[in-house]
Predict the 3D structure of the following.
Amino acid sequence: MESLILEATSMTPSISFNAEEGRLEMKGRSIPENSLEFYQPVFEWLDKYVESPQDKTVVHIQFDYFNTSSSKCILDVLKRIDKIDQKGLDVLVKWYYDESDEDMMEAGEDYEDLLDAPFEFVALEEE
Amino acid sequence: MARKARDRGRLYKEEYAELRDLQAYLEDECFEGEQTDRVGEMHVKLTKLSAAYGELLDEARLVQKVGDKLQKKLDKANEEITEKYIELSELNRALKDAKLSRRATTITLFLTVLLFILVEGLIEPPIDRWAQEEFGEHQMIFSMLLKLFVALLIRPMEKAVEKTMDKRAKARAEDEIKNRQRNEKDASPIKDQEIKLKELV
């Protein structure tokens, strides 16, 4: 399965999904005008990956900022990841946040509440 | 989807209560055992619908919380921008004042020199002559008083120059703002037309 690489823009995050390594990474800010349009290829890639995932999948998520419609799309991404957990395979969601950004950490906790997959919260020190 | 809800139900409390009622009703034993196909089908559909409604409530709650947090961030950013704007405005004002004051001092110095030349060359000799005739030996005191009067004029003169320059600077700034606003107004239909033209091309 081919990797999915999307470069970051001022409005969208970078996406780097590597099926062979089971490493999925989303990083940056997500404030696209049409969130669904941006996330559609991500959903399609994940739907395929969920059919035959790696034994261990690690999802790295590091958002600076996202809008409300993106929050729904991120949940849809994580729901697809949750399906891997429901299959009994090893999944870990690593949620990175700026140590001064409590809201971003709480957003991660809100997602954790809605899902079965385990979360690990990583506070990043300010540069 | 099993959930690890901590405070689920605080938002949409009534909707969650309705959902729990429906789920309890659907799990009732009366639906077990024999029943018509139609009722069985309806039971399955309602069970699916209640699960979907539960998920929708969770999502709505999440999106609302994210929205609140975004609002909080925006408010904070707005406050910071306002504070910076005030700081910058004060700094700008202080810089302008300093610049005006410096220029006013230069002009005043020039005027003072001019005034002294005027006094020494043109005004003082006839006054000295008149004072010599009128006051005799006290003529020197009168001359000193005249020079003191000129010296005392320096400060009010500087203030007056500063005030005039300040007024002119303000008027110039207002004109600039008005021109900019007029240009922006004029530019917008042109921009629209440019965009339309580009679309046509």
